[in-house]
Design brief:
The protein is an alpha/beta fold. The chain contains 7 helices and 17 strands. Bound molecules: flavin-adenine dinucleotide (FAD). Residues 9-15, 32-39, 41-42, 45-48, 78-79, 108-110, 113, 126, 130, 132, 135, 233-234, 267-268, 274-277, 279 line the site of flavin-adenine dinucleotide.
């Protein structure tokens, strides 16, 4: 049985940055990933200093090369089970049933956005259909921006987007989930609310041009931002018994530790702003804390070994 210092599940910015830090601490690390980083459909990363517009898959490929330098073992496999054994050692299993063991476990499996069921949306997702204004609104500033919120309240998103453009149209695609006060505020900001049903999104080469309604009306739009929620990419933390908070976000302390000793969570999976730079920073922070914890345990083990050896030699002397 190989016992790793750390197993990391999830090879996005959080997991990869943790791997770099742990590798530089000469830790024996095994990293698993299924290649489904949340922003893999995006046209380019924003809000990450010096990386403007870099394709997510390019950034990931650079990071994958970098971790090799530190001897990190990288496996493209899905982890489907994780448990803490009575000995305190963690056991994880991949989808083929193979087991792996580690002293510490870092979960960086991220989130997945729920795409609205809109005809044609996949052709535009990540290039002109988005969920996060901070990530993508600057590129469409002062253009015609749509907000899509079916069976949801998109008030905050619509109002927020007003920072980037004064031409906002809010599509509810059916029933309006807005209070009278919210409707009134939107009116004050000249944000039009359209409740007609949407037929499809139209455009080409990933560039949205028009929202086509079932009643044949058409609204020119350069980008569409939606509210539709997200979900955790894996249920490993649930299997491990970690505490889960509001909106299914995993609760960690400021050191990325969960309530289960030895299990750490970093990146989008825990509650914080969902940015690449923050995921990477949390991964780095978790790695430092894990290394410190391992150092402490190693010192304690050494002290008990020395005590044992001394006790043994004293006994032998008495004899
Ligand atoms: C369209 C879009 C555009 C975005 N644009 C930006 C932007 O411009 N700037 C910005 O800062 N942020 C942006 N984001 C947010 C950004 O994607 C996330 O903040 C970031 O990816 C979080 O990193 P992470 O490491 O926590 O998770 P992820 O990058 O999602 O990585 C998680 C990894 O875990 C793997 N995984 C999951 N479960 C398992 C399992 N059981 N076994 C093995 N592997 C597993 C997945 O395959 C995935 O590779 C955008 C998001 C989207 C959807």
């Amino acid at each position: 049985m190989i016992l790793y210092d750390v197993i990391i599940v999830g090879g996005g910015p959080a997991g990869l940055n943790a791997a770099v830090v742990l590798g530089r601490c000469q830790r024996k690390v095994l990293l698993f990933d299924t290649g489904k980083q949340r922003n893999r459909y995006s046209h380019g990363i924003h809000n990450y200093l010096t990386r403007y517009g870099v394709l997510p898959k390019y950034m990931i490929s650079l990071a994958q090369k970098e971790i090799k330098k530190y001897g990190i073992l990288f496996l493209k496999r899905e982890i489907v089970n994780a448990a803490k054994q009575r000995t305190g050692i963690f056991l994880v299993k991949d989808s083929s049933g193979t087991s792996y063991y580690a002293k510490k476990l870092l979960i960086t499996t991220g989130l997945t956005d729920k795409l609205p069921a809109l005809n044609g949306i996949k052709r535009f997702y990540g290039t002109s259909v988005f969920h996060c204004p901070y990530c993508d609104a600057w590129e469409v500033r002062n253009k015609k921006i749509g907000v899509y919120a079916k069976n949801k309240n998109g008030f905050e998103l619509a109002l927020s987007l007003h920072t980037w453009s004064k031409t906002i149209i809010y599509f509810t695609d059916g029933k309006k989930y807005l209070s009278a006060k919210e409707s009134d505020t939107l009116k004050q900001y000249k944000i039009q609310v359209i409740t007609d049903a949407i037929e499809k999104l139209r455009g080409s080469n990933g560039v949205l041009r028009t929202i086509v309604m079932k009643n044949n009306r058409q609204y020119p739009c350069d980008a569409l931002f939606f509210v539709n929620g997200y979900r955790q990419q894996s249920n490993l933390v649930e299997l491990l018994g970690c505490t889960i908070g509001k909106k299914k976000m995993i609760i960690t302390n400021k050191f990325q530790q969960t309530n289960v000793h030895g299990v750490y969570v970093a990146g989008d999976a825990d509650k914080d702003v969902h940015f690449v730079v923050i995921a990477a920073a949390e991964g780095a922070k978790a790695a430092v804390v894990i290394n410190k914890e391992l150092q402490k345990e190693e010192r304690l083990n050494r002290i008990s070994l020395l005590k044992y050896q001394k006790a043994k030699s004293d006994k032998e002397y008495i004899k």
